[in-house]
Amino acid sequence: MNILIFGDSITWGAYDPEQGGWATRLRNYFEEKDNDTDVYNLGISGDTTANLLNRIEVEAKSRKPNFIIFAIGINDAQFIHSTNGLRVSPDEFQQNLEKLLSIAKKFTDKVVFVGLTKVDESKTTPIPWNTDKSYYNKNIRRLDNIIKKFCEDNKLKFIPIESVVEDDDLIDGLHPNTKGHIKIFNRIKSEVESIL
Predict the structure, then answer these.
(1) What is the pLDDT of residues 92-109, one digit of tens each?
(2) Are 196 and 69 in contact (CB under 8 A)?
């Protein structure tokens, strides 16, 4: 069984020096429990759904997934002050979800979407490392609702995690710390096991 997890820096596991994030924790969990399950963490820092569309097919083809988890969208919700808009518009975001699903379905019918974490706006408006960019919870919630409705319309599992991580679980207002990654891992693990 090959599980592919596509996402961004939160999937990749930024700021969890103990075990490298929730997706790597999931891999470690299945390795200890069952040698027949391989989990591939395919998170790339900064990725949006548009970025993911450029690489998903090649990465999936080489790993032959039985199960795909998408945990992406928070960077799509990034507000760019110089253009006065989201990095990826809600309409484009919806279209990208449809394209991602149609590519995923070439490989497996087991597809899950993870919802988006909220941010601590006192630290993300703007983000210190790029003052042209901000993360606002209203924009994140808007895209989170698009993912949720998309999953309902396509009869897919949606794992909401908006309320899983609190402000003190976020190291810089955006990325979960080790405690935050543990919470996300525990939430996703039980959902994934119920589908396997």
Answers:
(1) 999 999 999 999 999 999
(2) no
